[in-house]
Amino acid sequence: MADPKSLPLSPDGKVRAQRLAGMLKDSGIAAIYVTDFARTNQNRAAAIEGARPAAHGRPRRAIRRNLVERLRKNHAGQVVLLVGHTDTLPGLIKALGVPSDIKIEPQDYGNLFVVTPRGEGAPGFLRLRY
Q1: For the chain, which domains are there?
Q2: Between residues 50 and 109, which one has the greater pLDDT?
């Protein structure tokens, strides 16, 4: 059985990655945080084609540890892309202040979440499909 970390994007995943790249091409991404899975890194590569934001790899099990503090400290006012998983993104979104619980089904790969800090109070939040 193959190591889940080394599995590449499926053909459908490659199509979604290109769609994501089109959506993000003019977003001004300053930094990317991505887990250590081949699929998340392939999505990251597609999303930043032609741009060179700082990329920060994180082991999947450590993706939440201190990440929200790091985002607030090092990337205030910047566009940051987090490429994660069904079991990492909901907790990060919650830690960023979004009050509602986010559920991502295991085979649901086409989500783009936009969290916009607003100083005090809950951040702005959009759930988009790509």
Answers
A1: 10-129 (3.40.50.1240)
A2: 109
